[in-house]
């Protein structure tokens, strides 16, 4: 596979990573789910088998050869943490809006190089075009995580399924505090983009005594699934 480059707007990806990363597994026995999966169609996802967090980008540019068969890549824990800690960049001329910066991933077979690139100030860079000026403000390289990432994005309901499956019966449920903290982190990470309110929806199942997962959205781009616990009757 030749090197594939994938680019995201700086201000969007930092919030997205901080929203999704709390759902990544902390169990190093399964390293493939301790990081974040970047999909070829412009989403990132993390899971620990009990919850799923995903974010779909408004803009993602992929440059790959047609025969590469590129379907995404998995960035490990170290790389994901590095991204989550990025701060707005200060240049010698003062602070510029983070929207003028791009996070560019150069994905090879085993490694990924991450560059923070200053966008050019011509054209429509502020409105969404990637205008690469060639000025790299920061850079780091991380190993890719091998193995098959579980296809958890397929668990996310589309609009039709969501409309059909919404509902909650009289069966009492509880949600672990840790799971709710993850949603709180997502609302805080995305609040600067005006998407700081979480909405909870309860999906139904064929068994009315067993509620389905809780579907959570923050704004238009972040989605999560949380497996509830049944409260036993006494």
What does this protein structure show overall?
The strands form four sheets. The protein has a seven-stranded antiparallel β-sheet with strand order 6-2-3-4-15-14-13. Helix 1 runs antiparallel to helix 4 (177-190). The chain is of the alpha+beta class and 234 residues long. The chain has two domains: 4-143, DNA Polymerase III, subunit A, domain 2 (DNA Polymerase III, Chain A, domain 2, Roll), CATH 3.10.150; 153-230, no CATH class. The N and C termini lie far apart (59 Å). 32% of the residues are buried. The longest helix has 14 residues, at 177-190. The chain contains four helices and 16 strands. It is 17% helix and 34% strand. It has helices at 10-20, 77-84, 159-165, 177-190, and strands spanning 4-9, 36-39, 43-47, 51-56, 61-63, 72-75, 90-91, 94-95, 101-107, 111-119, 132-143, 173-174, 198-202, 214-218, 222-226, 229-230.
Shape: globular
Which structural class should the secondary elements be placed in?
A: alpha+beta
User: Ranges with pLDDT <50 over ≥5 residues?
Assistant: 122-127
Level-1 CATH class name of the largest domain: Alpha Beta
SS strand fraction: 25-35%
The main sheet comes to:
7 strands, antiparallel
End-to-end distance, in Å? 59 Å
**Number of distinct helices:** 4
Helix-strand pattern, N to C?
A: EHEEEEEHEEEEEHEHEEEE
Number of beta strands: 16
